Amino acid sequence: METVAPIITLTGSLWQIIAETSTFGAIILAALLFMSIVSWVIIFHKWRQYKSVMDSNSAFMQQFKRSHRLSDVVGQAKGQRESHLARVFQGGYEELLQIKEQKNPGGAIQQSQQGLSESDIDVIEMSMERTLTEQMGFLEQRTIFLATTGNSAPFMGLLGTVVGIMDSFWAIGERGSASLAVVAPGIAEALLATIVGLGAAIPAVMAFNWANNKLKILNDQGNGFILAFLARLKKEEL
Fold first, then answer.
1. Is 50 within a domain?
2. Maximum Cα interatomic distance, the chain, rounded to a whole number of Å
3. CA gap 84, 64 in Å, rounded
């Protein structure tokens, strides 16, 4: 009973603080709570998304390394929908087929008698880089909200803190007393806004830095794969 009673008292005090919070303070707390919930939803979504992408990339690269020709990887690339490397492969391979069609109409899949020039290789590389940029933009979606929360939540909490302190001084002026009973509600509201603001900001900042690190790894994997694709292509075509 001795350990349960303080918890019940603390919980009751917290709800009492929220119930007695001013309208402006309640708006600040509601906004911070909304930002925190959305941030956690994004964090879990991005964790699952990046894990799926990494797993799919690993499976696709194993098939790519085992294959002898680029055409052997087409089916695997279509099956790995979560892999951004597979999308980059498809972008480069489709560009390759279009170039072959232009050089050898009606025989796009067969090797052109003219072969590929260095300018053709450059076009394929640009196509793959464009696809990689599009994929990275897709993987980066919603992470900006984490940065926004991490940057703005502490200031919103500070704003709520200032309002709570102003309410305390206002109560002192109205009642002509600086007793604890007069200033405590405003100070409690101020501290609660600070806690909620930091509680929303800290996980968002950590998650944003984690997401940026994952995005850098995925982008480096994409650039490395483009080089591997072009090296394989030159061996086959030049």
1. yes
2. 97
3. 14
Distances (CA, A) of 5 to 108, 136, 145, 188: 78, 52, 39, 21
What does the block give as tokens for 63? Answer: 């098939």
Tokens matching residue 157: 């909490």
Residue 113 belongs to a domain: yes
Residue 179: inside a domain: yes
Residues 6+ apart with CB under 8 A from 110: 100, 104
AA identity, residue 45: H
Domain span at residue 157? 36-237
Residue 224 inside a domain? The answer is: yes
* pLDDT, tens digit (0-9, with 9 covering 90-100), for 117-148: 888 899 999 999 999 999 999 999 999 999 99
What's the rounded Cα separation, in Å, for the pair 3 and 125? 66
Q: What is the pTM of this model?
A: 0.80
Q: How far apart are CA 140 and CA 136, in angstroms?
A: 6
* Cβ atoms of residues 109 and 70 within 8 Å: no
CB 85 within 8 A of CB 60: yes
